[in-house]
Amino acid sequence: MSRLPEAAVTRRGRLNYGKRSVKEENRQTGGLGEVLPPLSAHEARVEAYRCLYCYDAPCTHACPTHIDVPGFIKKIATGNLRGSARTIMEANILGATCARVCPVEELCEGACVLNAEGRPIMIGRLQRHATDHLFERGIRLFRPGRPTGRRVAVVGAGPAGLACAAELGRLGHAVTLFEKRPLPGGLSTYGIIVLREPVEVALAEAEMIAELGVDIRTDTELGRDVTLEALREEYDAVFLGIGLGGSPDLGIPGEELVEDGLAWIERSKFEPEKMTVGDEVYVIGAGNTAIDAATIARRLGAERVTILYRRSEREMPAYRHEYAFARKEGIDFRFLTQPVRILATDGRITGIECVRMRLGKADASGRAAPEPVSGSEFTLPADQVIKAIGQKKPELLADLGLATEKGYVRVDEAYRTSIEKVYAGGDCIRAVGAASTVMAVQDGKLAARAIDADLGLATAAAAE
Amino acid sequence: MADLSIDFAGIKSPNPFWLASAPPTNSGAQIHKAFEAGWGGAVWKTIGAPVLNVSNRYGAWHYNGHKMLAINNVELISDRPLEVNLREMAEVKRAWPDRAVIASAMVESKPEAWRDIVRRIEDTGADGIELNYGCPHGMSERGMGSAVGQVPEYCEQITRWVMEAASIPVIVKLTPNVTDIVPPARAAARAGANAVSLINTINSIIGVDLDSLEIIPNIGGKGGHGGYAGPAVKPIALNMLSAVARDPEIREAGLPISGMGGIETWRDAAEFLLLGAGSLQVCTSVMHYGFRIIEDLVEGLSSWMDDKGFATIADVVGRSVHRISDFKDFDLSFRAVARIDPEKCIRCDLCYIACNDTAHQCIDLVDGEGRKVAPGSYGPRANGKEAATADRPLPVVREADCVGCRLCYNVCPIDGCITMAEVPSGRPPVTWAELTAARPEVGSDWEAMKRYRQENGIDIH
Lengths: 464, 461
Prior knowledge:
The complex is a heterodimer.
Chain A: H1 22-29, H2 41-50, H3 58-62, H4 69-78, H5 81-91, H6 95-101, H7 108-111, H8 123-137, E1 151-155, H9 159-170, E2 174-178, H10 187-190, H11 199-210, E3 214-217, H12 228-234, E4 237-240, E5 259-260, H13 261-270, E6 280-284, H14 288-299, E7 304-308, H15 320-328, E8 332-334, E9 337-345, E10 348-362, E11 368-372, E12 378-381, E13 384-387, H16 397-400, E14 404-405, E15 408-409, E16 422-424, H17 437-463
Parallel strand pairs in A: 1-2, 1-4, 2-3, 4-16, 5-13, 6-7, 6-13, 7-8
Antiparallel strand pairs in A: 9-10, 10-11, 10-12, 14-15
Chain B: E1 6-8, E2 11-13, E3 17-19, H1 28-37, E4 41-48, E5 58-63, E6 66-73, H2 82-95, E7 100-106, H3 111-122, E8 128-132, H4 146-149, H5 152-165, E9 170-173, H6 182-190, E10 195-198, E11 202-204, E12 207-208, E13 215-216, E14 226-229, H7 234-245, H8 248-253, E15 257-260, H9 266-274, E16 277-282, H10 284-289, H11 294-308, H12 313-316, E17 336-340, H13 350-358, E18 363-366, H14 385-389, E19 394-397, H15 407-411, E20 418-422, H16 432-438, H17 446-456
Parallel strand pairs in B: 3-4, 3-16, 4-7, 7-8, 8-9, 9-10, 10-15, 15-16
Antiparallel strand pairs in B: 1-2, 5-6, 6-14, 11-14, 12-13, 17-20, 18-19
């Protein structure tokens, strides 16, 4: 693996994060440190004692990777932190990332029986407590399995690819993980704001997975540096965890002056000191990425940050808790507003021309379709515009010859694509419903087991 | 407003709450402060033989984040000079004539030693004397404390020496470190004691330090059994209290009992009163939180008495003792079953797993359509709070199979969610004593028992 920042990860994958105080962290990062401080050992124990230790617990049911939540919390209560982390990571190898980025209000914590009294257990923060314990000490819980002699190529070192590679490595298969970017981790590394997850956490997980015998080859892109045919030739199976495409175009004049939300977030993670932030910043779109991009702008000193959304508050795709968070950050929202033109002078943005919208009949997504109100155009003074209107559907699929479903990779129950020996998981197969890191992890884990089963069948058949 | 004042074997105090003989009553200054806070009395930290104490003398048992569910100690009797204690005792009594000041004493087992200490205590004007026959550590190695309390004959002999010398009320404090607390209590009664008090602390080892492998608490590399006290011992104390309170000889002698052992709240206090305690002694909870807890003890007890229509403490004392019985006199036909309130149930399923793993397998998980479902009935791709909570099955008791063991009731975290409903068993009341008197073979022969069960429709699955 190449180019891991040395300051972040030591030889044994021991993290440097968590040693600094939140205040110090914020000073060093210009307010971009993790929003939630780590729980102290005492806070964690007290919270763990509060857990009822439900049987067949709804939090475990709600978790896409079905972590035995009461089990890991009980182990925190007894001081068995290594065992706690094992319980988490047996189910979810990226437990440290998910502890930070999961929309826990919609998942485990949202299902906690103590919601009956309005105070669910802080499951995410407890999970972080247990997994941080491991990474801060460089403890390794898992080893590569006994070598099977089988080789599997995994494309894309995001959550799906990493989870798949880790599971395959633990099962004894030789895994090569191809990643087009310079660093592994996918969106965890590049697309999650530091307020939620520092880069070091994602990289430490990748390093742990590399130690399971996974050969991570960064700066290697499918279609450019390797072909699917060659991978199918060379490996016994191929898993595609290629995620989604880039940002779609707004399709309005002046688009070239608009910052891309994901690129904006990426810069905030790697070179926040080089970013310039306007005073009057607009973010187009009202998903979670839009809120993250707006939060960064606000924290980096923008005087006013406003989110523009063409539908109403009710239809916005951001989680309710993210919306509440954004409000607390002082981010403004203008609903039923569609930008139609970016105004600029000498290549500098001066404003956005918008049109008011109204809600019409439900569209294909089941949400009310916004329609422009004719003659309602108006102009907002602006000096910076960021777009975060989702990601395009996965690219390359036609080139690769994969059958698709609504533009996403079509897979069967065992994550098999239309091409023999080729499997897929993560955002690139998420034809229905919202995508998330933790769902990608589950895809990767289950796909690895499916690959293992398929490889095992082949072995059995050959032996007959 | 209920009258909380008591007259305990001639010792009067404005409320039944006394500080037990222990570190909180180590000095006059502490007792002044306690009386200012509102305590009705104080039993002075035991005076008597010369001693030296050690550091790390208190250990404690903490449970799931709750500190000091119990404390244990190897502290000896007062290590302050006898004269200082006696002088302060006199000062305190002079300053607080309406409060009970009781001297606890422990000296060598010689008649002259006891006569001497009784005389010196009486000179202070103290209201009574408590004989410490209970201290389980250190003093017992020197033939005092529980070494006396564990042998009824010693207990009786020493109490006689004291009774010959004493003109003020004498309370004999009993040790729980015996198989049966009644014989030492009877010995005290036979010797003419005016009252007994119980329980003293219980032999205990708090634990072992998993880093150093030392005993907790570590006393210079060693450790040993210490006296255990605090909320965790309350049920043991209530049992011993009720055993003494219902003993015919003690009742005959009309001996009042000062109850102690884990009293922390007015609720505990009321229970001790109901099981026969005429005064109440408190230590560990004061060591945990300070003298200020007296406010809630008095106020809570008083309000409860008002709610229940009890005008005086005497109305409460011993009121539940007649309900203490032996197994052989329980009604075998009494039947209760668990009922789970679906409105209150939060579906933690703790009742389900407790019943199914360790009790009688009579709670099912039932879905909205009334179908029994197995735990974990969801696929690997199940996801999200809606999926996890919308159709989460409800634990339901199969009443026909429920033996009414009450385990589910005990594990349920929600007040009032599970109730034990009394239901008719369809059998006439009968106790084990009555049954085996009428049909002795039922108690000795499984075939006879089988016949008896068949005749009475008792089915045990």
